Amino acid sequence: MLDFEMTLAGTENTETQQIARGLRQRDVALLHDLVGRYQYRLVRYLISLLGRREPVDDLVQETWLRVLERGRSYDGQSRFEPWLFAIARNLAIDTMRKRRVFSLDSSDGPEQDVETHSPASGAPSPFEQAARTEDAQRLAQSLQTLEPIYREALVLRFQEELSLQEIAVVVGAPVSTVSSRIQRGLAALRVEMQGGEDAH
Question: At residue 114, does pLDDT exceed 60?
């Protein structure tokens, strides 16, 4: 088992190093491959982050341009996705600041450290509920009611499957803050989804 895990880690490390090498060389074929592999996820992340589709196409194009321009800064020591999402996030924040729509940098109240384990009740998370009931549309609608910083944390953790450390890189916040956002987001999402069930 350990050998398999080491092989898997070695394969991932080799791939990230190949991406880093290709970006340093401005390899157009590599960029085309990366767009093919990550375009859908990038669009999905930005829509979830912004809560609307309208500015996303321009932001996605600008993100890929930045990847090409700043490719030398990707060192290949960690996964490509957090680096890519961090670029997209910074562009989205710049766009929203210009429009003064909302801020992803803060929330209404102070964040407190919250443990990252499941609720004491043992109840499934809203994501697990949605997966079981295949009610993805209701989950998506409930997600849109959350404050952007909580929605973003949940999307990066459960949809994009980034680790807490990787999310911390994307959002530029400590792991404890990321953990708090995920827990608060899950709690708010649970309330929202239970409210929706009561309405039916």
Answer: no
